[in-house]
Structure prediction request, 94 residues.
Amino acid sequence: MNKIFKYTAILEGFSYLALLSNMLFIKPNNTDLYKFFLFPIGMAHGILFIGYVIFSILIKNNQNWSFKDLVVVNIASFIPFGTFYIEKKYLKNA
Prediction:
């Protein structure tokens, strides 16, 4: 399950960056393209985010994380590039 969480963290980070880049770069230039990409990227990011949070709660005991570590892992999902940091620091032996 640690490996699945590791891949979910990486994919969630990429989907977050894709969503941010879609909102920053495509929206001002082309609203039709923005609407075309917004729903699938947003839906994928939402599913991956929920999976990230659920997996982090499920593997808390397996990784011997304290409650503080669990909070840090979950807060990192709100910060761009945060899940990549978590993948390197907390999941390096997964």
In short: Helices lie at 2-26, 31-58, 67-75, 82-89. DSSP finds four helices and no strands in the chain. The chain has one domain: 2-89. The mean pLDDT is 85.
